[in-house]
Specification:
- This protein is an all-beta fold.
- The chain has a single domain, classed as Neuraminidase, CATH 2.120.10.30.
- Helix content is 2%, strand content 51%.
- Strands 1-26-25-24 form a four-stranded antiparallel sheet, with no helix packed on it.
- A hairpin with a 7-residue loop joins strand 22 and strand 23.
- The termini are close together.
- Pfam families: SGL (PF08450).
- InterPro entries: 6-blade_b-propeller_TolB-like (IPR011042), Oryzine_lactonohydrolase (IPR052988), SGL (IPR013658).
């Protein structure tokens, strides 16, 4: 099955694609300036009037986002900015009021919270150290990690700190398996992305109220680009971006194949699914892909 690519709107869409059905809006975080002096914004594309609207112009370097279980709020992975600590925040979709949910682990500030997914009673987020390597944050005392937050108990758990660059996240439909991309791509010297490095997708079998997990490697992606967005497709397969490619494989890591490849200079960053379509960001536009 192959997809075709179509432009939706030209805009500075970078990360955090979230479809809110009751509003008919596609939310996203913008690309920060190249010198990182101007942080990302939070915006949305309104399908009713086909226009772009801004929720927060200068965010706390917002990156990944997801919808809460009640579908009335956004959970935002904020990387932090200079002297402002990274955190997970919640934004009310009616008032756009923002509140901080958690901004530290055992008293230590996070590195750069990046991707986030919501389960019924928990949310999960990755904390790589992009902010330090990109020069807009000091180095954290915490190792890079994967976290689970129990909403009802207001408790934060570290599910693992052995990953090199914990990045993209996807949660199975039954909420029993978490998929994690480890890019393994930051080097000690800039440029810090090593596109020739192998990428790894892990599965974590969740148990004990999602406060711990057993980690297993399901697939090693040959060096071919930088994996970023990852979702569970309608047929329960994994779909993920890899530079100018849209890739897929089974949840067991089998049958790796390319769904779409663009010969032009398009870097797919993030993906989301809404009303049977795939949507992808490329830093200067939002596209939709369909069969």
């Amino acid at each position: 099955m192959q997809y075709s690519l179509h432009p939706l709107v030209e805009t500075d869409a970078h990360e955090g694609l979230v479809w809110v059905d009751w509003q008919k809006r596609l939310y996203f975080t913008s690309k920060p300036s190249s010198d990182y002096r101007t942080p990302s914004a939070i915006r949305y594309f309104d399908f009713k009037d086909r226009s772009i609207h801004t929720v927060i112009e200068r965010s706390n370097m917002a990156n990944g986002m997801c919808l809460t279980a009640d579908k009335n709020h956004l959970l935002v992975a904020e990387q932090g900015f200079h002297d402002s600590p990274g955190c997970i925040s919640r934004i009310n979709l009616n008032s756009f009021c923002r509140e901080i949910i958690v901004d530290n682990f055992k008293g230590l500030p996070f590195n750069s919270p990046n991707k986030i997914v919501q389960a019924d009673s928990h949310f999960f987020f990755t904390d790589p150290d992009y902010g330090y390597y990109q020069g807009f944050k000091p180095q954290s005392e915490l190792p890079t990690g994967l976290y689970s937050y129990d909403v009802q108990a207001s408790q934060l758990f570290c599910l693992g700190d052995e990953f090199i660059v914990p990045h993209g996240l996807a949660l199975s439909r039954n909420q029993e398996t978490l998929f994690l991309v480890d890019n393994c791509s930051i080097t000690e010297e800039k440029p810090f992305y090593d596109l020739n490095h192998e990428q790894i997708i892990f599965t974590l079998q969740l148990s004990c109220g999602s406060s711990n997990a057993k980690t297993e490697t399901i697939i090693k992606i040959p060096p071919q680009g930088f994996i970023d967005g990852i979702i569970i497709g309608e047929n329960k397969q994994l779909i993920f971006t890899s530079l100018n490619k849209l890739m897929t494989c089974s949840v067991q890591g089998e049958n790796l194949q390319c769904l779409y490849e663009n010969s032009e200079d398009i870097n797919f960053v993030n993906i989301a699914m809404a009303e049977g379509r795939l949507y992808a960001t490329s830093d200067n536009a939002i596209y939709y892909l369909e069969t």
